[in-house]
Design goal:
With 342 residues, the protein is α/β, with parallel strands linked by helices. The protein contains ten helices and 15 strands. Helix 10 links the parallel strand 14 and strand 15. Helix 3 packs across helix 4 and helix 3 packs across helix 9.
Length: 342
């Protein structure tokens, strides 16, 4: 099968940072689905795993952890899908990614593709939907019952990005929370409002005075989808006593964070990494299948909408390189998608 691979760690402006290669088509075993990839999305994770570094690659690296496609064959333990089913999924970083013709993915972390979305619209959603869902409901423990959230507030730092866009939608439509989102440009602010944010504040300016101007003394929950280090002190200022914070971005070079500042408020701080369940084969790994299936029903009912904003044509080495360059600008609103191999 054809695949777009990283053979050397190179910058995205180097025309050789991706190369088209031929690989054997994999065979599904156990809970594996063999998926014919129809569309893929590009995330900041992809650029981080490709960025220049001195060490050599021991084997071709296939990136891509967001896809939609059609099941071609299944392993002997598969019970949830059969050949011909359309699926969407993010996969796992300990297996080859989706920038190829065929990919193996465990059925327990794949969901039925929303019928209302085409493959490109669906491919934009799995990684961010899983991240947002797990962050809101598993890590922050927010109830999917508006009656239990009356008067409570959620601040989404980075409201116009991929994770922020679907976090706002899920929180606004399933929890009844008052949703505040950060955005620093008119276009990103307009997008966050379109996703359902009740209030927009600018993360390039101090947050506390902006919240005070809206008569908000503090916030009960914070979901920080952006650089943790940049926002940690402000989170301490605005989180409510006994509030909860969810973080998804680590620190540069694995540096330490000072969580001691949250001690006096008894604030709970949780990390979210959507690859934890598949990486560690946790007992509740199939929760990702279930949440993707639940999200698909919400898309089909019109409760949620795709966050696809940019399409870069078919999956070629050059188009993928351009997509990585776009992600690295740090100005993306929503999600960027490529169709399958031409």
């Amino acid at each position: 099968m054809r695949a777009i691979a990283v053979l050397r760690y190179l910058p995205a402006d180097d025309p050789d940072c991706f190369e088209e290669i031929e690989l054997p088509t994999p065979s599904p075993q156990g809970h594996d689905l063999l998926v014919s990839v129809r569309a893929v999305s590009v995330n900041p994770l992809d650029t981080q795993m490709r960025e220049p570094r001195p060490e050599a690659l021991p084997a071709p690296l296939i990136l891509g952890w967001d896809a939609a496609g059609v099941v071609e064959a299944v392993g002997e333990a598969v019970t949830r899908f059969r050949p011909g089913d359309a699926v969407y999924y993010a996969g796992s970083i300990d297996r080859p990614g989706s920038n190829c013709g065929y990919q193996l993915v465990d059925e327990r972390i794949a969901g039925p593709k929303p019928q209302i979305l085409n493959f490109e619209e669906a491919a934009a959603m799995p990684l961010t939907t899983i991240t947002a869902w797990e962050g809101l409901f598993d890590r922050l423990g927010i109830a999917q019952n508006p009656a239990q959230n009356v008067g409570r507030t959620l601040l989404v730092i980075g409201g116009a990005g991929g994770v922020g866009s679907i976090t706002i939608q899920l929180a606004r439509r399933l929890t009844g929370l008052r949703v505040i989102a950060t955005a620093s440009r008119p276009a990103s602010a307009a997008w966050a409002r379109a996703m359902g944010a009740d209030l927009i504040v600018d993360h390039r300016r101090p947050l506390r005075p902006q919240l005070a101007a809206a008569k908000i003394a503090d916030v009960d929950y914070i979901y920080c989808t952006a650089a943790t280090v940049e926002h940690l002190d402000q989170m301490d200022e605005i989180v409510a006593p006994q509030g909860k914070i969810c973080l998804i971005a680590g620190t540069p070079e694995g540096g330490a964070l000072n969580f001691g500042q949250f001690h006096t408020k008894s604030v709970s701080v949780a990390w979210e990494l959507m690859f934890t369940r598949p990486l560690y084969q946790t007992a509740d790994m199939e929760a990702q299948h279930e949440l993707l299936a639940a999200a698909a029903r919400l898309f089909d009912a019109g409760v949620l909408r795709t966050t696809l904003t940019e399409q870069y044509g078919p999956l070629t080495a050059e188009n993928l390189r351009r997509a990585h360059q776009r992600i690295e600008t740090g100005t993306m609103i929503g999600k960027l998608v490529l169709s399958g191999l031409p």
